[in-house]
Specification:
Largest sheet: 6 strands, parallel
Number of strands: 8
Structural class: alpha/beta
Shape: globular
Strand content: 15-25%
Helix content: 25-40%
Oligomer: single chain
Radius of gyration: 17 Å
Number of helices: 8
Distance between the termini: 33 Å
């Protein structure tokens, strides 16, 4: 009872309570985003003719990148994805991208992501679980609409600034992405809401 539990999200706190049990005080303390990410303005223009997506995260099982590779097998050629991160799945993913001629690039690590993110139209993430994604919050603060796996912590993080897709169906991601890019006003609204949520 003398312990005070600090969790990075309500989902994490609830998980701890379910499996360990809260006996003392508890607090949700969200991750801190660097000030350099908050110099972006909401995005005002989007093109459905060329859609540049970005994902940030280590190339490991939890990030569920095989889902994204599967989705891009049926993704139209005008949609591209750049993934920033390194990890044990890099070689396997690179081979699959090359074999299937997917419009995806593995871009390694970058130290200036606050500048890099602004070159893209939207952020995507297909994780099976997260505590609270700092990369997602940085993307939102940069004004990027988000397309996210439909898991509780993603909804807690992004709320209305994102479109959520079914992790059991890669085609759901493809369809929702293309449909949303038909609606420029919705994308602008997501950009504004993302900055507000990250703030």
């Amino acid at each position: 009872k003398r312990h005070h539990i600090i969790a990075v999200s309500k989902v994490v706190l609830d998980d701890f309570d379910q499996w360990v049990g809260l006996r003392g005080k508890s607090t949700v303390l969200y991750n801190i985003i660097g000030d350099e990410f908050f110099t972006a303005s909401p995005k005002l223009s989007f093109s459905k003719e060329k859609i540049r997506l970005v994902a940030v995260g280590n190339l490991r099982k939890q990030k569920n990148y095989p889902y994204m590779l599967q989705a891009f097998r049926s993704m139209p050629s005008h949609v591209s994805l750049d993934i920033y991160g390194i990890g044990p799945l890099q070689e396997q993913m690179q081979e699959e991208i090359k074999t299937d001629n997917l419009n995806i690039r593995l871009c390694g690590l970058q130290s200036n992501m606050h500048e890099v993110l602004r070159n893209y139209d939207a952020y995507t993430m297909c994780s099976t679980h997260e505590g609270l994604s700092l990369a997602l919050m940085e993307a939102l603060s940069s004004g990027l609409p988000a397309f996210l796996s439909d898991i509780p912590v993603q909804r807690e993080s992004a709320e209305k600034a994102a479109v959520y897709f079914d992790l059991n169906n890669p085609e759901d991601f493809v369809q929702k992405l293309l449909a949303t890019f038909e609606d420029t006003e919705r994308l602008k609204e997501m950009s504004r809401e993302g900055i507000e949520r990250a703030s």
